[in-house]
Here is the input.
Amino acid sequence: MKIRPFGDKKLAPALLICFGLFSGSQLLYCATEQGKEPAILKCAAVQMRSTRDLAANSRRIAKSIQDTAAKGARVVVFPECALTGYFEDTITNLSTMEITNAASQVYAACRNAHVYAIVGSAWREGDAFYDSALIIDPAGRLIERYDKMQLAEKWPRAGDKLFVFQIDGVPCSVMICHDERYPELVRLPVLAGAKLIFYVSHESGLDEQSKIGPYRAQIQARAVENNVFIIQANAPANPDKTGSHGQSRIIAPDGNVLQESSISEEDILIGTLDLKRATRSNALNSLKRGPLAAWWAEGLKHVKRVE
Here is the structure.
């Protein structure tokens, strides 16, 4: 698995007061003043294949967390169902204990590396299954669990919680795969303060080529129409064209792709985000003018703020 770093050359590090943790010579995050929102944030998107072996998946995720932390990443993002594998027949036979035990290994990896992670995983509560993203802090604690709302599969139950959470003081949100087709699932969290959206996906395989272009266009649109960063972690294509189609991305607030993985290779993208660029300007205009300003304000009542 390759690791490719990216840095924003427009940054002026000499003007920043840097703080936090270091791994080797790698800076994890910077802020203008201690206790305030960072000026930059270093994020990693891990493009990986998962298997039907839960233990093997958790070991690989833990190793990727360790490796990316050593490269300076503060947040590590994994594809949809990376922990459990994206196999309905396997997922629906997993017990709650099997999933939570595997997740605990990932929590421990975050604690050991002292980084955040966003990890796609099926989740079970009683007889109900969810297609989820686990949001884990550097102490190895689960901050929150996002459950996919707009489903393309039959096995999960739809989630109903939109929220904004903090990473080192940076307001963030998350969505999963098919959710990207519903702009309100990004616009509302952005109106609630989110500057960075994590997008975990397992998109269509290469046999459905007509979907690949729209997938890319949609996620770029979500970035530019809200003026926020998007970190996408997707699974790569398999040799037989099954699975997903790769192309994990780091997208700037102007909609341009800063980095993009290949279709078929496992890969890791690492990007240093200049958070001043995440102005949220286009999104905020929805509250300032137009016939739907009151409607958006009402919608904000449905966005939870996780402290």
About this structure: The two ends are 35 Å apart (CA to CA). The first strand starts at residue 2 and ends at 6. The first helix runs from residue 54 to 70. DSSP finds seven helices and 18 strands in the chain.
